[in-house]
């Protein structure tokens, strides 16, 4: 894994945008994430798009996950979040923005169709990821199969509590979701995981320096051939080898 430690959340967003911009200008298949952490990255990409530096015209987007049973008009549906915070502000064809369907009559069948749509698009070239405080990626909670594909999951109470800040009350947070699996995520060409803030420091330390384990779903990045972890100093604060990771960045082979 490449570990990039940045001075600030803004710098994390700039680094992530630098990577995504390259894939976007090539008309790539982009895996997009929700949560608050990617918002600065999306704002940076929107700014660059308006400045004429990046186009998403030939791109396809696949979101990681969605709540089950939340109408897509709901402002916290991930359909709305991806559209409102990112895709509606750039030049991608809306028909090329794919979000898992949490409202299907047959959710398992919809999950299988989503998985096939990714395959039909040629696979995801770059997948942006956040990380939950318990080490989840997408909505793959602890004990998720490391080879899982898109499916329905039940949220951990910690995740429900963490996400309650986006809703009026804890009771409004759906407990069922659909999410790309850890196996789906493994198939992407490059993984870019971003994390900021001290509340993510434990999860980041488990991801980078803990064992490969379903107990920390994000640890699957350890067995991906091209995984990039971009964190700020606060999120890096529990890494034992942080000085080494900085040394590597300062001494990249030409
Ligand atoms: C949600 C999303 C994840 C995200 C996580 C962290 O549960 N499903 O994809 O990584 O929250 O969110 P935040 O970036 O707001 O801390």
TrEMBL record:
Domain Glucosamine/galactosamine-6-phosphate isomerase spans what residues? 30-222
Q: Which GO terms describe its molecular function?
A: glucosamine-6-phosphate deaminase activity; identical protein binding
EC numbers on record: 3.5.99.6
Q: In which pathway does it act?
A: Amino-sugar metabolism; N-acetylneuraminate degradation; D-fructose 6-phosphate from N-acetylneuraminate: step 5/5
Q: Which GO terms describe its cellular component?
A: cytoplasm
Residues of the active site are: 65 (proton acceptor), 134 (for ring-opening step), 136 (proton acceptor), 141 (for ring-opening step)
* Hydrolase in keyword set: yes
Which InterPro entries does the record cross-reference, listed alphabetically?
Glc/Gal-6P_isomerase, Glucosamine6P_isomerase, Glucosamine6P_isomerase_CS, NagB/RpiA_transferase-like
The top EC class is: hydrolase
Example GO BP: glucosamine catabolic process
Which one Pfam family would you cite for this protein? Glucosamine_iso
Provide the site residues for: Part of the allosteric site.
144, 151, 153-154
Does this entry carry the keyword Hydrolase? yes
Q: Any inhibitors or activators noted?
A: Allosterically activated by N-acetylglucosamine 6-phosphate (GlcNAc6P).
Q: Which UniProt keywords apply?
A: Allosteric enzyme, Carbohydrate metabolism, Hydrolase
**What catalytic reaction does the record list?**
alpha-D-glucosamine 6-phosphate + H2O = beta-D-fructose 6-phosphate + NH4(+)
- What does the UniProt record say this protein does? Catalyzes the reversible isomerization-deamination of glucosamine 6-phosphate (GlcN6P) to form fructose 6-phosphate (Fru6P) and ammonium ion.
Family membership, please give it.
Belongs to the glucosamine/galactosamine-6-phosphate isomerase family. NagB subfamily.
Q: What is this protein called?
A: Glucosamine-6-phosphate deaminase
Organism of origin is Corynebacterium stationis
Q: Cite the source lineage.
A: Bacteria, Bacillati, Actinomycetota, Actinomycetes, Mycobacteriales
């Amino acid at each position: 894994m490449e570990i990039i430690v940045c001075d600030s959340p803004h710098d994390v967003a700039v680094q992530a945008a630098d990577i995504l911009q390259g894939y976007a200008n090539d008309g790539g298949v982009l895996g997009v994430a929700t949560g608050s952490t990617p918002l600065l990255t999306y704002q940076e990409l929107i700014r660059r798009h308006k400045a004429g530096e990046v186009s998403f015209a030939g791109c396809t987007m696949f979101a990681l996950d969605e709540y089950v049973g939340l109408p897509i008009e709901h402002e916290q549906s991930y359909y709305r979040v991806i559209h409102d915070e990112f895709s509606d502000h750039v030049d991608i064809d809306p028909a090329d923005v794919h979000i898992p369907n949490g409202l299907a009559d047959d959710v398992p069948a919809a999950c299988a169709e989503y998985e096939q749509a990714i395959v039909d698009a040629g696979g995801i070239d770059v997948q942006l990821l956040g990380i939950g405080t318990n080490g989840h990626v997408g909505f793959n909670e602890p004990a998720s199969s490391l080879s899982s594909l898109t499916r329905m999951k039940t949220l951990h109470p910690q995740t429900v509590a963490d996400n309650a800040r986006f809703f009026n009350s804890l009771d409004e947070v759906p407990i069922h979701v659909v999410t790309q699996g850890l196996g789906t995520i493994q198939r992407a060409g490059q993984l870019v995981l971003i994390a900021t803030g001290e509340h993510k420091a434990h999860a980041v330390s488990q991801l980078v320096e803990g064992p490969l384990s379903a107990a920390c779903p994000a640890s699957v990045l350890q067995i991906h051939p091209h995984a990039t972890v971009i964190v700020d100093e606060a999120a890096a604060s529990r890494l034992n080898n942080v000085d080494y990771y900085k040394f590597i960045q300062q001494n990249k082979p030409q």
